[in-house]
Amino acid sequence: MRPIDAIAAERKEWVARRLSEESRLESIWHTHPVPRSRKADDIAREAFFIWWGVLAIGCVLIITGGYGKSLFSWVIAFGLAIVTAGWYQTHQQKEAQSIIDEEMQENKVELEKRNEDKKTERERKSRERIERQASRRFSRYERIVEAANRKNILLHEYVLYTYPPDWDVRAEIVKKRDQYRCRDCSSISSILHVHHITRVGAGGTHHLSNLVTLCPKCHLDKHPSKRPG
Hints:
Shape: elongated
Strand order of the largest sheet: 1-2
Order of helices and strands: HHHHHEEH
Low-confidence stretches: none
């Protein structure tokens, strides 16, 4: 497999792996709402008002009857309110069960469609984001390989992540070739840098022909963005 094809395959595998991770996280964190019935919600609301009304009537009777100090009276009033509201809700739901089932089914279908649409949109945005990440991650590799193929330079002259293992040896060869002088100002310095004429990110190599000796000042002039302050 040619290097550019290998990078494309690696990029495709990386995108697929990231999408799989996103999908697994989505299944953990994204919850789906439970189908609801408007009729059942109305009955529950009415039952709450009945509970509140019965409890209020019980409280008034307790206070006006002089039983306010009796804890048993308050427990009876509270329990009666709960039983009354529960009986009303159960009775009404049985009478309207067919309506509730129909509304639940309709709401379920609607929720499934809405959830599917949201999932599709999330997957689209996730894929776009991951593709952008992949472009930033692999575009430099692709540019380097394309430049190597175009210039017919051996790919081992490129090191994608850092300097080559024999960088110190190469740097010493370049300095010796340039007679330990800065190629820009011809000065002799105890500290000399080795500079890439064409930066690696722009398709340059670590080949000796792309390396030159510079003094620290001239090297900094080549990289003004690295100036302090």
